[in-house]
TrEMBL record:
Organism this protein belongs to: Brassica oleracea var. oleracea
Cofactor section: Fe(2+)
Coiled coil: none
SMART domains: JmjC
Protein name per the record: JmjC domain-containing protein
Length: 470
């Protein structure tokens, strides 16, 4: 069964694209695009690429060889994904180099059957930035820097056990900044990105082929349209028409991503990707005001699916809701309570930054207003859904605003928005009177205990602000 390709993804020059235009044309309209000329000054394009343009495997073996990484076996499926192996970077690049020699026919003495059972390996989801913070391989392009997810995770865990004050590493991702490395023929099955986040992917070297399915057609690649449980795995294999009767109606967009190109993948666009050459890429997932509704919609859907999956033990469970939230965090990466705390801290940070701005009419100020307005809308959705029920889920305002960790979080946000909007990079300071003013917008208990509390605080702040919400 072949697929119908009906168009190509646009390509534009990144040097000619302002953040304002990018936000209006691609973020707000949820349109994919290939962008050139964003990676020329990256250290990775010097260190990681050999003179012949291929990956410099010796550099990785020498400098990062001891790192333990996840490697996908592209020829073996395990449930809904490729089978994952764990190995050192050194072992991975040695196997890659060996396979490349064999593919080039340089092992003439080998029998013809030696390649039987050989798999194409693909290193994925390497948290390189977290593992090597002192090695600046690249800088996130300003177009993609309004990144609530990774700014937040640089300072907080997404999921915490508040009862025992322990952080669950097994269900909390340290960040969503990844390095991918794979030989010609390695690939990624059809999928949409985690949290329905945005993603960007830049080729340090090599070329990729991307196939995109618009969000309006995603029901055609799932087998249970009412539940959206199982997705087509490989669009180029024979697809079971009984299981996926709508697949033959899908229409796809295609693009070839060259070395140095960066591709923007909007929320909810399913995609399948092939490495046409030996390739190294840098990939980030991120979210902000423009796609927050997509994130919430998926989180709520996953919550209802989780609730349904364990409904048969509701009557015998000591705390059925807590079990739902724990399972949701394990399967999705965050639960409803985590999302609420994430939004509460981010809203407070935006208020603190607005108080520090002068003049208040700047592009950065308008960005912060958009952020608060969007968070308010998401909290109103949570109120309608009844999303936060745990009694111990709250944010203590005085404790938060006096916490050095929170102030570092705010300063990083401030530096990021100043860079995005090309405003003067003065040191972001938060005098005590700013923080006291923010506390004044809270209620008497000085806590944000529910989405309703956060909505009311945002409203009180907006009423007194020089940049009221629309």
């Amino acid at each position: 069964m072949g697929i119908e390709i009906v168009g190509r993804i646009d390509k534009i020059n990144g040097k000619e694209l302002s953040y304002k235009d990018f936000a209006e044309r691609y973020l707000a309209k949820s349109q994919p695009v290939v962008i050139s000329d964003l990676t020329e000054d990256w250290r990775a394009r010097e260190d990681w690429v050999a003179e012949n343009g291929l990956p410099n495997l010796n550099f990785f073996a020498t400098h990062f060889g001891k790192s333990r990484v996840q490697v996908a076996d592209c020829d073996r499926r395990e449930y809904t994904d490729q089978k994952r192996l764990e190995m050192s970077v050194l072992d991975f690049v040695e196997q890659w180099a060996k396979d490349s020699v064999e593919d080039n026919g340089e092992n003439d003495d080998d029998d013809d059957d030696d390649d039987d059972g050989k798999s194409v390996l693909y290193l994925k989801d390497w948290h390189f930035v977290k593992e090597y913070p002192n090695y600046t391989a690249y800088k996130t392009p300003p177009l993609f820097s309004d990144d609530w997810l990774n700014i937040y995770l640089d300072h907080y865990q997404m999921h915490e056990d508040r009862e025992n004050f322990q952080k669950y590493d097994q269900i909390s991702c340290s960040d969503y900044r990844f390095v991918y490395m794979g030989g010609k023929g390695s690939w990624t099955p059809l999928h949409a990105d985690v949290f329905r986040s945005y993603s960007w992917s830049a080729n340090v070297c090599g070329r990729k082929r991307w196939l995109f399915l618009p969000p309006s057609q995603i029901h055609l690649v799932y087998d249970r349209q009412g539940y959206m449980k199982n997705c087509v795995y490989n669009i180029f294999e024979e697809v079971n028409e009984t299981k996926f009767p709508g697949f033959k109606e899908t229409t796809w967009l295609e693009c070839i991503q060259e070395s140095g190109d960066t591709i923007f993948v909007p929320s909810g666009w399913h995609h399948q990707v092939y490495n046409l050459e030996d390739t190294i890429s840098i990939n980030h997932n991120w979210l902000n005001a423009y796609n927050l509704a997509c994130v919430w919609d998926l989180l709520w859907k996953d919550y209802k699916d989780t609730e349904e999956s364990i409904e048969d033990i509701r009557d015998i469970s000591d705390d059925f809701e807590a079990l739902c939230q724990r399972n949701l965090a394990a399967n999705t990466g965050m639960n409803l309570n985590d999302f609420f705390i994430f939004m509460s801290r981010f809203a407070l940070g935006n208020m603190v930054l607005q108080e520090s701005l002068n003049p208040c009419s700047s592009a950065m100020a308008q960005n912060l207003v958009l952020n608060l307005s969007t968070i308010k809308k998401m909290m109103m959705k949570m109120i309608s859904a009844g999303g936060v029920t745990a009694k111990d889920v709250y944010l203590d305002l005085r404790e938060t605003l006096e916490d050095p960790q929170f102030l570092r979080f705010c300063r990083d946000m401030g530096r990021t928005y100043k860079m995005i909007h090309k405003e003067e990079d003065n040191k972001v300071l938060f005098p005590e009177e700013f923080l006291l003013k923010i506390m004044g917008f809270a209620d008497q208990k000085m806590q944000i205990c529910s989405p309703k509390d956060l909505v009311e605080m945002i409203d009180r702040y907006s009423t007194c602000s020089s940049n009221p919400l629309a």
